[in-house]
Amino acid sequence: MTYTVGMYLGDRLKQIGLDHHFAVAGDYNLVLLDQLLKIDGMEQVYCCNELNCGYSAEGYARAKGAGAAIVTFSVGAISAFNAVGGAYAENLPLILISGAPNSNDHGSGHILHHTIGTPDYAYQIEMARRITCAAVSIISADEAPAKIDHAIRTALRERKPAYIEIACNVAGAACARPGPVSAVLSQVPGDAATLEAAVEAIAAFLAKRDKVAILVGSKLRAADGGEGAVALADALGCAVATMAAAKSFFPENYPNYIGTYWGEASSPGAREIFDWADGILCLGCVFNDYSTVGWTAWPRGANVVQADIGTVTLDGQVFDGLHLKDLLTALAARLAGQPKKGGTMTEYRRIVGAPAPVDSAAPTAKLTRAEMARQIGALLTPETTLLAETGDSWFNAMRMKLPQGARVEFEMQWGHIGWSVPATFGYAVAEPKRRIITMVGDGSFQLTAQEVAQMVRRGLPVIVFLVNNHGYTIEVEIHDGPYNNIKNWDYAGLIEVFNAGEGKGRGFRATTGAEMAEAVRAALDNHGGPTLIECIIDRDDCTSELISWGRRVATANARPPAK
Ligand SMILES: Cc1ncc(Cn2nnc(CCOP(=O)(O)OP(=O)(O)O)c2C)c(N)n1
Ligand SMILES: [Mg+2]
């Protein structure tokens, strides 16, 4: 059997730990798909469309560290670009591979199908370059190994998406075999002197402060800094909070964990502590208009250390060229044995006498948001992953207390509604042994619902809580208007449509707490496919956090143009 360019790509993807890749067929990628099918231990998983294919690979990357999607030229790739933009925003190495025109057509003046109708086909890779850390076009077999390795190596190193375009007549061409996988896994070491100087500068910063707190951000995962953050928290003995998008990136049963810091949408007591602290260590934080609640909750200035993936900034100094993972470990070692900075925990315990707003039980009455959230929260085990969609689902998830090992996935920086359904599919393909739960609003679901059919096809026992509050409630709380109303669907009834007489998906409508509880019991018993539980609640029955957050975001959006 001839060893081909497509097999080189497939072997490299397998070598970096992918057992699956996601695809939608198109005549520019069919020969490539054939090559990938030849790779032992690599399964080709099909999606309903290329947007969902991209998001499935993104969800897979959240579980496995990287993901790959194969699409056809332009009509496929440009849809998938939305998921690539999301992967860039969320620091995920998604490898998008697009079939491309025959290499002989370049410069021929030929007008080809699936293009914008000009003989210049370079527009696609030019678009890709803006939303990836590496983008390559392969029109000959000789150049394929180096270009494929460059794209994969850069994506893994930068934790950003990469793009590979392969001419349809090259994918099956003879190619050399790859060398050791270390060629694409190698990392650039951090600078030792910079690391030491940064540690000393932070130690000096802390020595002058008593009211210290740690804020964990979403880039901590991309930096592989989870263990280092716990070691630093142990060394300091201070309060630790997570930003909303970093929920589950720090263990919530940690004794000094005080919940989510999100301005007015914070967990009880957390906002007060960060307002009160005189020394805040921000670890991998992303401060955007949503995460700062319309710029009203943005730790910065002389009392803040910003420790990012490769750079530390504090007190007018900057230390670039280190790895956050190394910094956390070295700083924890440097602070070992020093007096603890427990002032923030002492203060926190003083002010949180009032219990957190626990969602109360009302099993028989009309279903409420609180009862829905309570029943979902009760399902969280150490082996659970909860994917929470843009919408009030963010805020419902924020209130949930996680057992150690439970994971939460958001897409808060990009915030593409509908992401959670295909991302759940990809995540479930990657992690079939975990309990996987999705919380998605009716508005979001309508963008990507088809991928539930793929969950039926593969018999994935995912539990999808469809929050039917009759419209775009998160938008209502920002700025209401007729555009926030949507056509209602029979969401639970969709499952029979997707089953088509053979699938094992199940659908339930819950209008009371008791109906929801019964549906949950059935879902836990359904191991042969997804269970969609449509939770019917009032349109304005949303979390108090969403209301205040929505006001702040609306105010930020309404700022008049600068003079
Ligand atoms: C692709 C995309 N298009 C539009 C938006 C704006 N947007 N953000 N949230 C929404 C509404 C979400 O509504 P649901 O999913 O029903 O959520 P809730 O009602 O808040 O539970 C929109 C329309 C968006 N975030 N992403
Ligand atoms: Mg809704």
UniProtKB/TrEMBL annotation:
Binding-site positions, Mg(2+): 442, 469, 471
Pfam family, one: TPP_enzyme_N
Stretches of the chain forming a coiled coil according to its record: none
Tagged with keyword Magnesium: yes
Keyword Disulfide bond tagged: no
Annotated Thiamine pyrophosphate enzyme N-terminal TPP-binding domain residues: 4-109
Group of enzyme by EC: lyase
UniProt-listed Enzyme Commission number(s): 4.1.1.1
Manner of cofactor binding, per the entry note: Binds 1 Mg(2+) per subunit.
Cofactor(s) required for function per UniProt: Mg(2+); thiamine diphosphate
Protein name: pyruvate decarboxylase
Catalytic function, reaction form: a 2-oxocarboxylate + H(+) = an aldehyde + CO2
Family under the similarity heading: Belongs to the TPP enzyme family.
Any one Gene Ontology cellular component term annotated for this protein: cytosol
PANTHER family to which the protein is assigned, alphabetical: PYRUVATE DECARBOXYLASE, PYRUVATE DECARBOXYLASE C186.09-RELATED
One of the record's GO molecular function terms: thiamine pyrophosphate binding
